[in-house]
Amino acid sequence: MPAIDTILQETKRRMHGSLDALKKEMATIRTGRANASLLDNVHVEYYGSMVPLNQMGTVSVPESGMLVVTPFDKSAIKAVETAILKSELGINPSNDGNVIRLPIPMLTEERRRELVKVLHRLGEEIKTGIRNIRRDANEDIKKLEKDKEVHLSEDAAKKALDDIQKLTDAHIKDVDEALKHKEAEILKV
After folding, report:
1. Threshold 0.90, pTM exceeds
2. Cβ of 115: how many Cβ atoms within 10 Å?
3. How many structural domains does the chain have?
């Protein structure tokens, strides 16, 4: 059935997109090591508009406990520094007029626990999204089954619903695995 295959492919694509979104978001959650993706969600007010920090300059990681931001426009250094302070990353920038240095402080136990809670909340949002994708796909299959022009048998519909559930289970498992690895990374001292 081409219609069922289309629904399954679209469901798989959307679920995989949710997993990719989770991984991208998890990269912005700070661990004890410096990582340029920590600054992905930082936006700088530049000539009246909000510009992503990574478009304002280069971000490098010269050592495991330090990030260095080199703005393309040296006159924007104060705006970049202000944006980093407002980002609630818990990082205090310092600049020498050319670059901004961001020493990454070691995480306290309390902060690690807070980050794990944020991580789990993010994971639940992604799982809910995956379940919503499953619901949409199930509704599409049931509509096909009721459509007299398609002639979808009850067995084919049941198999499609089972396939959607297997896809859902596999993606939820992948989310749990990703969360487990990130949690271990956060809690590692």
Report:
1. no
2. 19
3. 2
